[in-house]
């Protein structure tokens, strides 16, 4: 997994005992000075989108309550919820509706 982040990831590699166990690659800038305006805009766009998608999964799909009885069931239920969200986003894209406005599909 490749994680691209800003100052929130500083020291994460040190906190993890063995990064090979997690298969995690953390990329951050070497000097870690304040982000430039371009970097702030770039990260801000993706951060807002990720927070919106997480909010949709939590509020609309209740992803925190899966009630699965096994790891396999948990995986299937989470995949089903993410797939249905992806399908709703795709249908909004095709019909030229706001991409993350999925309440018309749920209610």
* Order of secondary-structure elements: EHHEHHH
Main sheet specs = 2 strands, parallel
Low-confidence parts: none
Mean pLDDT: 77
Shape: flat
Beta-strand share of residues: 5-15%
**What's the total number of strands?**
2
Major sheet: arrangement of strands = 1-2
Rg computed from alpha carbons, rounded to a whole number of angstroms: 18 Å
Number of helices: 5
Terminal Cα separation, in Å? 35 Å
Q: How does the helix and strand content classify structurally?
A: mainly alpha
Kindly report the oligomeric state of this protein.
single chain
Helix content: 55-70%
Protein name: Transposase DDE domain-containing protein
Organism: Thermoflexibacter ruber
Helices and strands in order, then pairings?
Blueprint: E1 2-4, H1 12-15, H2 19-22, E2 25-27, H3 37-59, H4 71-94, H5 103-106
Parallel strand pairs: 1-2
Please summarize what this structure is:
The chain has 107 residues and is mostly helical.
Could you characterize the architecture of this molecule?
The chain is mainly alpha-helical and 107 residues long. The protein has a domain at 50-107. 55% of the residues lie in helices and 6% in strands. The protein is built from five helices and two strands. It has helices at residues 12-15, 19-22, 37-59, 71-94, 103-106; strands at residues 2-4, 25-27. A two-stranded parallel sheet has the order 1-2. The longest helix is centred in the C-terminal third of the chain and has 24 residues, at 71-94. The radius of gyration is 18 Å and the shape is flat. The two termini are 35 Å apart. The mean pLDDT is 77.
């Amino acid at each position: 997994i490749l994680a691209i982040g800003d100052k929130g990831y500083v020291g994460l590699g040190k906190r993890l005992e063995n990064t090979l166990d997690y298969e995690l690659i953390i990329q951050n800038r070497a000097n870690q000075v304040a982000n430039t305006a371009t970097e702030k805009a770039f990260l801000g766009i993706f951060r807002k989108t990720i927070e919106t998608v997480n909010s949709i999964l939590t509020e609309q799909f209740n992803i925190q309550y899966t009630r699965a009885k096994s790891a396999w069931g948990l995986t299937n239920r989470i995949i089903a919820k993410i797939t249905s969200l992806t399908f709703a986003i795709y249908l909004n894209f095709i019909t030229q509706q706001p991409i993350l406005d999925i309440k018309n599909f749920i209610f």
